[in-house]
Design a protein that fits this description.
The protein is mostly helical. Helices cover 67% and strands 3% of the residues.
Length: 156
C-alpha cells in the first residue's frame, strides 16, 4: 500500500476529509471539542487522524535514523542496519493500517455539504435575511436590512 502513496500522506488525507465532509481537520477537531454530543463518526475520524499523524512522525524519524546509519557506514550492512530497516518496515506497516482505518471511517461518514464552520453559516444566514424583501400592507418591497418597523410592530 505504501508504494502507491506520495510523500505527503497527511496532506492527501486532509484533502479527502475536507472533500467528503466539507470541513478541514482543524474545524472538525473544534466542532467535536465544542459539541455537547459530538457525532461518533467524526470523533473516530479525528482520533484516527491523530493516530495516523503520530505514525507518520514515527516513519519519518525511523527513516532518518536508517539513512544516518547507512551514511555513517557506506558499503556496510550489519545487524544494526537490519534492525533499523525492520523497525522502519514495521512503522510503515502500522502507518498504512492507520491510513486504511481512517479512510474507511471517512467513507462510512455520511457526507454533509451543509456542514460548515458556524461563522460561515451565520454569515450566509445574515446575507439571506438582508436580501429578503419585506412587504408592508401593499407598499413597495424594501430589503430587510433597510426596513423600519411599523407602528404596530413597535407596540408589541
Amino acid at each position: 500500500m505504501s508504494d502507491d502513496l506520495p510523500d505527503d500522506v497527511l496532506g492527501l488525507v486532509e484533502e479527502r476529509i475536507e472533500q467528503r465532509l466539507g470541513l478541514p481537520v482543524g474545524a472538525l477537531q473544534s466542532e467535536i471539542a465544542t459539541a455537547a454530543r459530538p457525532d461518533e463518526g467524526l470523533v473516530e475520524i479525528v482520533r484516527e487522524y491523530t493516530e495516523l499523524a503520530a505514525a507518520e512522525v514515527a516513519v519519518e524519524e525511523l527513516s532518518d535514523e536508517l539513512l544516518d546509519l547507512l551514511m555513517a557506514t557506506p558499503g556496510e550492512f550489519n545487524d544494526q542496519h537490519m534492525q533499523a530497516a525492520q523497525a522502519l518496515n514495521n512503522a510503515v506497516t502500522h502507518r498504512d493500517a492507520r491510513l486504511s482505518t481512517l479512510l474507511h471511517a471517512v467513507e462510512q461518514q455520511v457526507p454533509t455539504p451543509a456542514r460548515q464552520a458556524p461563522a460561515a453559516v451565520h454569515a450566509r444566514s445574515r446575507q439571506a435575511t438582508a436580501a429578503r424583501p419585506v412587504t408592508t400592507s401593499g407598499a413597495a418591497t424594501v430589503p430587510a436590512a433597510l426596513a423600519v418597523p411599523t407602528a404596530s410592530a413597535r407596540r408589541r
